[in-house]
From TrEMBL:
PANTHER family: TRANSCRIPTIONAL REGULATOR, MARR FAMILY, TRANSCRIPTIONAL REGULATORY PROTEIN. It comes from Streptomyces sulfonofaciens. The keyword Transcription applies. Residues 11-108 form the HTH hxlR-type domain. Signal peptide: none annotated. It holds the Pfam family HxlR. One of its GO terms (molecular function) is DNA binding. Keywords: DNA-binding, Transcription, Transcription regulation. This is HTH hxlR-type domain-containing protein. It comes from the Bacteria. InterPro entries: HTH_HxlR, WH-like_DNA-bd_sf, WH_DNA-bd_sf.
Length: 146
């Protein structure tokens, strides 16, 4: 994590990176966007240690990016969902994925497809649907492996 020393540097990017700049944090937000919500599923999907996962989830919940909700009572188990603040990271994830696809392409092509649930179009560079022109967001876009 970056030091929290902004006496000589006033920078919104640095402050944002304090919350989502650590590698696992954005990958956790990405996975929640893709439909992963449970602790064990994060461990399996990411290969992250339990202690690191616990710390990152606590940080994202504490910062209001994720919400922790019980889904089972005996024993108590929780799932993690995006808050409005977390949903606002969706454009960042899409643009980062597009940037990665452009500058670090896989020989097989982009690993994920993002599609408008209304018509099946893809997001353009302005996150508008290429087919119908609708603005796209986390609520009206699906993602699946190619």
């Amino acid at each position: 994590m970056l030091r929290r020393d902004y006496d000589t540097q006033v920078c919104s990017i640095a402050r944002a990176l304090e919350v989502v700049g650590e590698r696992w944090s954005l990958l956790l937000v990405r996975d929640v966007v893709f439909g992963v919500h449970r602790f064990e599923d994060f461990v399996e999907r990411l290969g992250i240690t339990r202690s690191v996962l616990t710390a990152r989830l606590e940080r994202l919940v504490g910062e209001g990016v994720l919400e922790r909700r019980p889904y089972q009572e005996h024993p108590v188990r929780h799932e993690y969902l995006l808050t409005e603040k977390g949903r606002q990271l969706w454009p960042v994830l899409i643009h980062l994925a597009r940037w990665g696809d452009t500058h670090y392409p896989s020989p097989e092509g982009p690993p994920r497809a993002f599609l408008h649930t209304g018509c099946g179009g893809a997001p353009d560079g302005h996150l508008l649907c290429t087919r119908c022109g609708a603005p796209l967001d986390a609520a009206n876009t699906t993602s699946h492996p190619r």
